[in-house]
Amino acid sequence: MFFSTILVPEMYFLSRLVMLNAYDILLVTKFPISSEEEHIELNAKTAQTNSDINLGVDIGGTNTRIGLFETLETANFALIAKFPTHQDYEQQLHQILSTIRGSNIENLAGIGVSVAARIARDGRSVIVAPNLPGYIDKPFAQDLSDRFECPIRLAHDTVCGLLAEKKFGALQNVERCAYLTVSTGTGAAIQLGKGSTALTSSIEIGHQVLDGNSLRCLCGQVGCLETFTGGRQIELRYGRSVAQITDSAFWETFCNKLAIGLVNLAQLTRIDVVAISGAIALNNSFLLPMLQEKVNAILKWGMLELRLAVLGENAPIVGAADLLGIPEDAILH
After folding, report:
1. Alpha-carbon distance values, 115 to 17, 48, 61, 123, 258 (Å)
2. Which of 104, 179, 207, 258 fits a 20 to 30 Å CA distance from 217?
3. Which CATH number fits domain 2-160: 3.30.420.40, 3.40.50.2300, 3.40.50.720, 1.20.120.530?
4. pLDDT tens per residue, range 133-142
């Protein structure tokens, strides 16, 4: 059997667990986690300790991952499964349910879910999802609660990413901060804090309207920032993925538009630091310094520091689990 434990941020994992009579023999192998790994099976009973188990579910526009957390005090987790996100809600729900049931997890304390979509104010369902329209108005939290009879928390993936980076990564000790993901879509969350008080909110940074932009967004609006920075919309317009675009003029425009969006965010919220993540940002090392330069050139009344997210693609799943330890009234959906 295989027991994968992801150690963040070192990004190594414990690979084989062999049981011999009454003894557990741990064979430790350190090597980078493969991004191509599609499915990792876990017999949770062998991994279980006396404490209850929390699950984090990260539903992205492209892939879904489910992780097991033995504690919420570290960013370490065991990856149960990774599979393509289904556009059909019922198919997605079935795959999540069957994966969790198949893992034989006992003492399930709660499930936190990160979704690439806007969540209803009561935190129980999806209300806006340009990249996952089949999920809108479905009783997501209730459907999970009915099956597992444990606390269920939902949040926008950017809220989860921010919570993870604030607790374990690039945003530690920053009172006024934001988390930006540049991937299939363009989303953000902010946290404004003072002392022991902090309020976290998702925001639709990708759907702010840019002057002079006549492109229609997948959300239905005309002029959204995401028409220039969202991976799915770029692919639809150019007929190829962002990874295949090397034209310097394209990236110049990309950074110009995104810099305007970030400056608008800084002026409206007075944040000091933004942690940037998402496949487009993480896979193009030139992007962050170019973006910082353009932000500096525009912003005259202060400074906005851009940092690469420490937890990378793991931030949403770590933050999803962390939702279970955060009061509901500390988050605005």
Report:
1. 32, 27, 8, 11, 22
2. 179
3. 3.30.420.40
4. 999 999 999 9
